[in-house]
Sequence to fold (496 residues):
Amino acid sequence: MGWIEKWTLRFAVVALIFLAMTGFEGVLMRTHMAAPQALAGFEQTLNAVRITDHEPTPAELLYGMMTVHPIVGVYGFAYMSVMGAFYFLVPYLLKKEIRHKKLVPLNFWLQTGGVLLCWLSGFFGLFNSLYTLYWPLPVSFDRVPLVGTIPFTVGAAVIMVNILLFSFNTFSTVLSKSNPQSYSFWQFLRAAFGISRLMKWLGKEDKNAPNLDYNGLPVFVVAVARGSIDTVINAIVLLTAGALILVYGLAALLGHPLNPMAVDALVYKNWFWWGLDMVADGNVLIYTAGVWYLLIPLLVGRRLFGESVVRTSSWWTCWSRWASGATTCWATRCNRCGCGSSLARSSPGASSSPWG
Amino acid sequence: MDRQERIWLGVLVAVFVLVNVITLSPLVPWQQWTLWTHPTPQQQVRIEFGDYEIHLPPGGVQVQAGEFVEFVAISQDVTYGLGVFREDGRMVFQMQVVPGHENRIVWRFDQPGTYDVRSTEYSGPRHPEMFVPDAIRVTP
Fold:
């Protein structure tokens, strides 16, 4: 077994451990909701090591677990699975080596450490802001304990920085000029955003430029490129939100609390949710789809049906996220200046649909 | 792209267009007045949220079925949710109540009866306490 195969398996094993952890936590939460007293003895034992200034209420325990449950599931299981798989598949498909080999073990340990820190801050520190992190709840320290907030934001920051390092390594590997299958940064970016295809539709195709978007890169690599754009945006947005919460937490710790209302809750929400939803597209949807688009033709021994449609739809998904982000920002601005109609203007931060 | 692939792409585009047209059309009751008819509300109801409590206007909320009501919700501290529910627990509508803003929604109740109000956005460990039974009375 080669070096990268071993690391891929390590990522896979730890990812599965995190999956088991999140599953176990799911069972605990359901038990809590069905019969809170059933776990009284178990919780009493855990309370002996919990760093809280009071006996936690059943609700605090439940919401603490609920907050870190998706963090462990998404960043522990899903991301670690993706990291392990991509570190094997990308070099294998492009017939080249990982560009920065030292980053592979670093990614492994930072991701594991960051997820564990987040989990500890929820399970033992009772950080209970939920993954929604609606401002100013995460800095309302009468509701969310400071002792859980600071390690949670540090853990989240470690995870986000690590994701940026992973994306950088993936991009570097694809772009490295170690063999003829090399692409320039702009070619890769054009493929990621579907620029070549757009220009072709507009009748402005550059016949001399390599149309990597639809006849050069394997579908899987296009998916990696497009998914990585969303993943990087997600990491940057969550990193900024985490840093903001950390600043408020440290200020409170030092006895100089800051005014939460200094940050506009609506602007924060639109910024945060635009970035948060990138997990769904970049990681869950596009990465997963890319892997299956790779595996299914290999398994059935035929070419991928509708490969062109696949490339178009992933392009579509990528740009629809940008369009929704721009629309949200415009809507926020519009609502703030009050230039909408009397009814539509009505809802800064409000939803007139039953789905929220 | 061969013929079958073109047909499949056409199906995807048709589904995309159809779903968007239907969900934004007047066929959806709340889209009818939010996007298309823009009626002037006959009544305005202000609801304040703060410290895990929902403060309704003194005397409660009484509205007439079929009339348009504008709900204005304000939060004094964190983000809450204004959720209105039927007696059997089914949701009528909800909106987020973001602090620092006046959060508005226009609604028309079709059925007379009493409706509960519940915060539909997590606001801390005491969030489940934020429930006001029979908060809105809709008369025929």
Summary: Chain A touches chain B at residues 57, 59-60, 63, 128, 130, 132, 134-137, 140, 143-144, 261, 264-266, 269, 305-306, 308-309, 312-313, 341-354, 356 (CB under 8 Å). The radius of gyration of chain A is 23 Å. Residues 333-356 of chain A have pLDDT under 50 and may be disordered. The first helix of chain A runs from residue 3 to 34.
